[in-house]
Amino acid sequence: MVSVVQVYEKPVLNNPVLIEGLPGIGFVANIASLHLIQELKAKLFAEIRLSSFQDIAITADDGKVRFPTNEFYYHKGRDKEERDLIILYGNTQALTTVGQYELCGRVLDLARDLGCNYMITLGGFRRDEKVTTPKLYCAASDTETVKEAVGLGAEIMEGQIFGVAGLLVGLSKLWNIKSFCLLSDTPGFYPDAEAAREILNAICKMLHLKVDTNRLDKAAETTREILGAFGISQPSQEEKPKEEEKSHPWHI
Amino acid sequence: MVSVVQVYEKPVLNNPVLIEGLPGIGFVANIASLHLIQELKAKLFAEIRLSSFQDIAITADDGKVRFPTNEFYYHKGRDKEERDLIILYGNTQALTTVGQYELCGRVLDLARDLGCNYMITLGGFRRDEKVTTPKLYCAASDTETVKEAVGLGAEIMEGQIFGVAGLLVGLSKLWNIKSFCLLSDTPGFYPDAEAAREILNAICKMLHLKVDTNRLDKAAETTREILGAFGISQPSQEEKPKEEEKSHPWHI
Amino acid sequence: MVSVVQVYEKPVLNNPVLIEGLPGIGFVANIASLHLIQELKAKLFAEIRLSSFQDIAITADDGKVRFPTNEFYYHKGRDKEERDLIILYGNTQALTTVGQYELCGRVLDLARDLGCNYMITLGGFRRDEKVTTPKLYCAASDTETVKEAVGLGAEIMEGQIFGVAGLLVGLSKLWNIKSFCLLSDTPGFYPDAEAAREILNAICKMLHLKVDTNRLDKAAETTREILGAFGISQPSQEEKPKEEEKSHPWHI
Amino acid sequence: MVSVVQVYEKPVLNNPVLIEGLPGIGFVANIASLHLIQELKAKLFAEIRLSSFQDIAITADDGKVRFPTNEFYYHKGRDKEERDLIILYGNTQALTTVGQYELCGRVLDLARDLGCNYMITLGGFRRDEKVTTPKLYCAASDTETVKEAVGLGAEIMEGQIFGVAGLLVGLSKLWNIKSFCLLSDTPGFYPDAEAAREILNAICKMLHLKVDTNRLDKAAETTREILGAFGISQPSQEEKPKEEEKSHPWHI
User: Fold this and answer.
1) What is d(CA D204, CA D202) in angstroms, rounded to the nearest whole number?
2) Res B235 pLDDT > 50
3) Chain B residue with minimal CA distance to D252?
4) Closest Cα partner for B55 from A111, D164, C142?
5) Which helix (H) or strand (E) holds C139?
């Protein structure tokens, strides 16, 4: 077994937008996507297990085993305006570079199969300075989509985006999917509900989603518990400051 | 060659239970499964060799080469009550995460092909404190199976289960197999016959197996010899205390 | 997804020569091939993405995501003398040995499909001493091709050639492609336009290419910017002095 | 490309014996097999290139590129007594465990296709003490073959055999090939012609090969040159003393 993609239901969706929300810096994406799932009562329809996830199981009070997995949820817009969604949520990214590529390929295959041609990946942008109101940053697959992201109030990001959030945007063109990555300022070392709120507000407005962000702290708390139980450290950084890389590209 | 599954015989079994007994903490699973094989005169019917096992051979007094392998044995219940068994026994787990997933996938494929829909994985739960009477701990694939395991006198385990014992339980749902993991207290640093005895007593009662545990020390001694010859250190921990992981899930 | 080879156009070429120009020592190959592409207005026709490339995306001023990729360009000779070319250009080599073999296999498959039976790989030969006029060095797949390379004014190289530049020449025979590697002296720690100029002069003469090398500094500057943004350190050395390896072949 | 098996000629052989001679401890196997090839004028008929070999090329005086490869030679017995041979010779083993398994699988596939059902793997057994006359040691796939190896004057070996020499014997049963490993005492840190001579004398006698061992030093010298140029350190040990492993099988 190298990977298992289990599809429980094949939803019929109308031009859906995929929102990626795997663990990363400040667990911003994780919190935002979990909150969307809970508030929209999005429905689990598929699951991915990869041999490049950790080989562990964990148990909690109820004795039921939990394990590293990535799940797909869908939401059908409740009125004419609200967009259909595919939400990628999970407790891990792949542990290796090869695994990250495999994971992204599977996600893009599945998205294309459901008629998706637009994707938003989420993440945190670590700041050493104290963050008061988190700013948003964006990067996109193409010039047109850059403009749409900037229209959300995001600044154009300069630097490197690591992990699935960056890789999906980098690969999406090959699947004929347009995409942008939306990052929020965060100190990064705890599940950051405030950074997630900024991102949620922006994408809810763009996609005409009616979502109350009052219970965001609950999603942050759940995220803390789940990941704490797994002992999963952040699988990859979504962003690194540009300067430090500049010093060693010609080293051996 | 990535992996070879050699099937010597395809037994016809009646609703068999798979018992996993690969090397791990205190070699508890290894001793218990070897003892079952010897006492029940279970019959070898298949073998798995993976490219993620060690690339060595070892020799003993008789000059015949031994090598890293996983074997499948079967036992047909000797009366109406005694359950049919598939026993997974071996001298190694896979050396890599990807290999562990591949191994588990192969095991689950083979089990499903033989009509198995129930699995028990075994292991040790390392204790720093002195263990007088080993307690049992359990975790399961679903709520119903948690209850069955608790019915054996096991406490619900909280923490992480590493290696094949945990991974099989985590994956079994995708193969429509119910499963639980049964761990026994053990200091963990020697082949622990006493911990194996507790586990054997519990599962023999549950599965109505008539097995004498008097000769368990012999199985422990054989285990010591085989693994000593291979120079195999414990391939993975089945359990780690929960506290130490809690401190670093948000580190980079 | 393990790898994606995207072919945008299948050009009809007349006995084309493949020129390899991936990043390496002094980025000599990278500069030379970029300059060829720009001066000849060579046309992008295919792209390779491998799961053994880095899993990052980077963004610049315009917000558009860039990512690790290898591209193929073609040039059709503008007169009877000028040879048709396939130019392999990119911002990375594969990160692992297995990936390097996969990349080379893909490149050779694609080259053979287009009727290519001659290949020139480029690179830098690091010198600790100060380089005034860079000398050229060569190695080839067969004796006849050695002579052709020596005919360009190159000395026969002695030593090891790491990375795609060496591996392609080592493998080409199995694809019935003749090949040589052309290296130029370079201090190696910056994008070296002078080393690239020596190489370009030699291959342009051999292949009757009319290419102005005056704007080479621009290609070096672009190379510096692209690679700096990626934070990619040199993925592999094309050459190491022979002496240092000699000391440890029989160590354990 | 993961691996390329290039078959130049498919020889018709009569019950051939495969002799493995890849680099290892003291390069004993490498020297012995090279000598056999040279003295018997054995003919190259196939070649294996794996993505788990090193990704380098090296050049020597003549400018022709050399590269990591494994080659197959055959020899047809020159009289009724002399056995047909397949000789596996090369300048490397695979760099990873997975690669070693893949290599062995390919070798066994190819051997079986040519009607081979007997294999001898060669190697050195490192001794810290000074070796005056090297002793021979053996291990085999089955009891009958142990006897045949002991009949050559070899002692039964106790311990671990690493690398292809051990792995091939461990796997051969699954391909219905009987096999033994023949090791010779050696200090191990230089290409050891004396150890190779002991082994050659034994197998030539067994297989009724008429081979002069006077020029063995030449084979050792060639081995030294080839491997020195590649800068290849010994890819794996064929043997380790049994004691040191015994101390840590129950560690974590």
Assistant:
1) 6
2) no
3) B234
4) D164
5) strand C136-140
The answer to whether the CB atoms of C97 and D51 lie below 8 A apart is yes
Phi, psi (rounded to 5 degrees) for C206: -60, -40
pLDDT > 60? residue A117: yes
Chains linked to D by 3 or more Cβ pairs within 8 Å: B, C
What angle (nearest 5°) sits at the alpha carbon of residue B58, between those of residues B52 and B59?
160
Contact C166, D65 (CB under 8 A): yes
Q: What is the mean pLDDT of residues A41-46?
A: 98
D121-144 tens-digit pLDDT:
999 998 877 777 899 999 999 999
**Which of the pair, D2 or A234, is modelled with greater confidence?**
D2
Per-residue confidence (pLDDT) for residue B240, from 0 to 100: 40
CB D219 within 8 A of CB D31: yes
pLDDT above 90 coverage of chain B, percent: 71
Supply C132's token pair: 């005034």
Asked whether the beta carbons of C65 and A166 are under 8 A apart, the reply is yes
Q: What are phi and psi of B225, to 5 degrees?
A: -65, -50
A233 with B249: Cβ contact below 8 A: yes
Assess whether pLDDT exceeds 90 at residue D86. yes
Please name the residue of chain B whose CA is at the shortest distance from the CA of residue A192.
B250
Contact A101 C50 (CB under 8 A): yes
Which of the residues B3, B100, B101, B242 would you substitute to probe the A interface, choosing the one with the greatest number of A C-beta atoms within 10 Å? Answer: B101
Q: In this complex, do D249 and B237 lie within 8 Å of one another by their Cβ atoms? A: no
pTM: 0.85
Chain D contact present for B227, CB below 8 A: yes
Distance from CA of C122 to the nearest CA of D (A): 14
The nearest alpha carbon in chain A to B99 belongs to: A51
pLDDT confidence of residue B231? 65
Report chain C residues whose CB lies below 8 A from the CB of A178.
none
Strand partners, D47: D6, D71
Partner-chain contact A49 B174, CB within 8 Å:
yes
Residues in chain B: 252
Compute mean pLDDT per 10 residues along chain C, 252 residues long, and list them. Answer: 85 97 94 97 96 88 90 96 97 92 95 97 87 90 96 92 94 95 90 94 96 92 83 48 28 22
| pLDDT for C235 | 42
* B248 — pLDDT class (breaks 50, 70, 90): very low
Residue A133, pLDDT score: 83
CA dihedral D10, D12, D13, D14 (to 10 degrees): 150
